[in-house]
User: What shape does this take?
Amino acid sequence: MTLNETYFDQRASTYGDLSWHVEYAERLVELAELPPGISVLDAATGTGLAALAAARAIGPAGEVVGVDISAGMLREAEALLAKSGLPNIRYQKADATDLREFAPGSFDAVLCSSSVLYLDAARALAAWHQVLRPGGILAYSAMREGFPAASRVFRECAAEVGVAMTDPMAELGSEDASRAACEQAGFRVDRFVDGMVHRPPAPPADLWRGFAATPLHPKAPAAEPRFLARMAELHDDPTICDMPVLFVLARKNATDLPKVGAPARRALAGAGYTNLEQLADVTEAELLRLHGMGPKAMGMLREALSRHGLSFRTD
Assistant: This one.
């Protein structure tokens, strides 16, 4: 069992009690504009709040698969699903950054609500790119870098006692960072939408326990007195626990075909094949029937498919 799994198993029973989690997930699904009847992966689904919203959005002809590393979270998700009566969701224990058990191009959309701060951004985006079809929808929510302010104070106090901590939202918590990460992974960002989660200030001791328990940072017990004193000074600030958020809406780019010879290029274009992912839906025999396709071009296509985890269809 990993540290993250243990942490979320411990949080599972109370996670759904926080109303902002529900509103946050529903807002992400609203912005994603999921069409009816599609297949959706809810990555790091937790208790399934975004999965439930997505299932209602796509209707009974669609399907939502929710994955999470925490068995405890998935038990809570199953309980909420039973109460909902929705027939088009299933849950599976899996790492949201390693989705090799799903075939490439399995989903029309991937969602991730309020969980990217716990994930390795590059690994997560690569995994989501792999399971999305070309043109598929990616929608995730990210807390803005540097927030909530109380967490920034926690890291500053840790640094003062010699424990360096990075902001877990540095990778995705701004427009520039998210755009760069998405483009590197093969996505085109369509738009960003701002949001805000207002949370009342919590007692400094409660904040310390929460930050100290998270798997996101190394331990820094020597920082506790500094943090408690600093937060006591700031406790009257009503925004100290507010979380400005960024909703990111993107699409998977199609992969260009390799530069085959002119006869093969004309044959592919004439048959309507303009990207590599389309070729995963045809057999080699079907392509070889196209006038202009020869062994050299087929070899180049086969190699390109393999590099991207794809292959020709086999019947």
